[in-house]
Amino acid sequence: MKIDEISRNLENIETWSLKDSRDRGCKRWSVYPPDVLDLTVAEMDLPIAEPILEVVTDAVRRQAFGYPIPDFKSGLPEIASNWLSGQNLKVKPSQIRMIADVIKAMVLALRHVGDTSGPVAVITPTYSRFLDAIEAAGRRPLEVPMRHSQGRYELDFDALDEALRKGATTVLLCNPSNPVGRKYSAAELETLSEAIDRYNVRLISDEIHAPLTYGGGFIPYASISRTAAQHSITLTSASKGWNIPGLRCALVILTGDGDAEMWDSLPRAAKGGISPLGIEATKAALEHGQPWLDSAMRLLDRNRNLIYEKFARAGHPEVLDLPESTYLAWLDLNSLSVTDPSKYLIEHAKVATTPGEEHGRAGTGFVRLNFASPTAIIEDATDRIVSHLGKNALA
Ligand SMILES: Cc1ncc(COP(=O)(O)O)c(C=O)c1O
């Protein structure tokens, strides 16, 4: 089946093959030898949504390869404002700016927003680039590990308070969390916002995984109160939900008074790199991408349950908490009793995962597994991992 036919026929979303993914020539499936299942970088083995393919193909035909149209002429802030209001986040188009990618925005915010003299409190385990972004901004990280209790991770407010007492002036939140898949509750976000307010610091909330929340219920940080909206900056993008990170377009949501003006005053050289194709693709995703996303979520839901049940049935329920969001499984492989579980799995199970330590010190003994692949691949990869857990348990 041709790629555009697969994309049109949502019921056949799983007819995508690994050959199709390899033919993309992107990072995933290009790094490891052919016998290794690559479940690392957050790209999905799924056809791109038809509305996105259509606008990008049209843009290619029109040779839309110039510089990007300015934010206020692009129509994207209006579409994004409408999309965000569906998540109960009320923002005016004039409070939304485009940028090439979320991490670039994070570095810029860490350099320029609020008091940047102190360290950055980063809730861990977290997406590895958060730690890179802190370094790129010339600031020092203070890791704030989450607490793990009764089969789920929770924000640890004592640990956060300690970091704030030590002088942290910015807090980094990944909501929902990559890698642990938590969508934080209103109560958690309210308590978090009280702490941020008490210490009069700023919070950056990366909400790039919000579209990938199972059963809905995602709560944007800035939506919980006027106070939270004032002290936070929200970063998001269609790049994870619709699998288009190579198209180079993300969004900065500036809900604090004066923040949009402050953002506009930052050096233009640090904000470049947005692609006209990315603007078109993001508009199509936010306006017309929900049916595709619903279909993709059904596959991801099946995969997350399959992995969860396989570990539980094998007598290892401790390995995975069922993710509430994202297509990432955060696997506790301490029972393997090896120093580097990721390396071990590549060598012995021919499964590539992302090493846990990249997500902060709290990640030691863990790996992150990307389950956005045909179910047969995920089943095979999980069986391989389970068989090694069994071996070590017997050893
Ligand atoms: C939480 C999170 N933020 C940011 C990114 C990267 O986004 P971008 O390519 O827009 O920098 C990722 C990619 O996986 C992610 O998981």
From TrEMBL:
<dbReference type="InterPro" id="IPR051798">
    <property type="entry name" value="Class-II_PLP-Dep_Aminotrans"/>
</dbReference>
<dbReference type="InterPro" id="IPR015421">
    <property type="entry name" value="PyrdxlP-dep_Trfase_major"/>
</dbReference>
<dbReference type="GO" id="GO:0047804">
    <property type="term" value="F:cysteine-S-conjugate beta-lyase activity"/>
</dbReference>
<dbReference type="InterPro" id="IPR015422">
    <property type="entry name" value="PyrdxlP-dep_Trfase_small"/>
</dbReference>
<comment type="similarity">
    <text>Belongs to the class-II pyridoxal-phosphate-dependent aminotransferase family. MalY/PatB cystathionine beta-lyase subfamily.</text>
</comment>
<dbReference type="InterPro" id="IPR015424">
    <property type="entry name" value="PyrdxlP-dep_Trfase"/>
</dbReference>
<keyword id="KW-0663">Pyridoxal phosphate</keyword>
<dbReference type="InterPro" id="IPR004839">
    <property type="entry name" value="Aminotransferase_I/II_large"/>
</dbReference>
<dbReference type="Pfam" id="PF00155">
    <property type="entry name" value="Aminotran_1_2"/>
</dbReference>
<keyword id="KW-0456">Lyase</keyword>
<protein>
    <recommendedName>
        <fullName>cysteine-S-conjugate beta-lyase</fullName>
        <ecNumber>4.4.1.13</ecNumber>
    </recommendedName>
</protein>
<feature type="domain" description="Aminotransferase class I/classII large">
    <location>
        <begin position="35"/>
        <end position="383"/>
    </location>
</feature>
<dbReference type="GO" id="GO:0030170">
    <property type="term" value="F:pyridoxal phosphate binding"/>
</dbReference>
